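Most newcomers find our protein records easier to grasp once they have seen one. Nothing more is needed to start thinking about how sequence determines fold. Here is such a record, shown just as it appears in the course material:
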Amino acid sequence: MSAKWTIHGREFTNCNCAYGCPCQFNALPTHGHCEAVVGIQIDKGQHGDTKLDGLRFAGVFRWPGAIHEGKGEVQPIVDKRASAAQREAILRIMSGQDTDPGATIFNVFSAVLTTVHEPIFSDIDLSIDVEKRRARMQVENVVEMRGEPIVNPVTGAEFRGRIDLPNGFEYTLAEMGRGWASTKGQIKLELADSYGQFAELHLCQSGIVR
């Protein structure tokens, strides 16, 4: 019998799409393919009897076309502070296991990934302020990423916009921003001033906790 789980925390995502990301609206990606880096802070979480409070995980993703067309690859990254049980729990959640079909972004992505690289267990230096639309993540020799607000090209003032998805499988409300990311290792990406997303996550095996 699969374990019940829940995670409540924050995420920052930077992908190669233009601000707003067409994929959020069932449209094709800006450049015809998808590249993304995701960092997640678990403020409070549990998988069965295993507590996940305070841990972090991340992923580097790439698809040759639109996500739904498949053939994607991922590099999972898990907080090295996690115990063996916590590592297994996080990897099961990330890979869409112990989850109702289609209920979470992890489960949906698992169906369109062909290659899952061996997980990296490392320090994940991560800070996310959803309200201020600022984030930073560093994984030594793997990821350098930062997120900032979108700015008005004329005045330089910070711009604020949101995406509200009442029936989403990742979040219900996300702050829009922009991001930069450079990755090494199995998946090498260079993203600059492209789509950034800051959101509160509250997920369980059945989807978003509302």
The chain has one domain: 5-208.
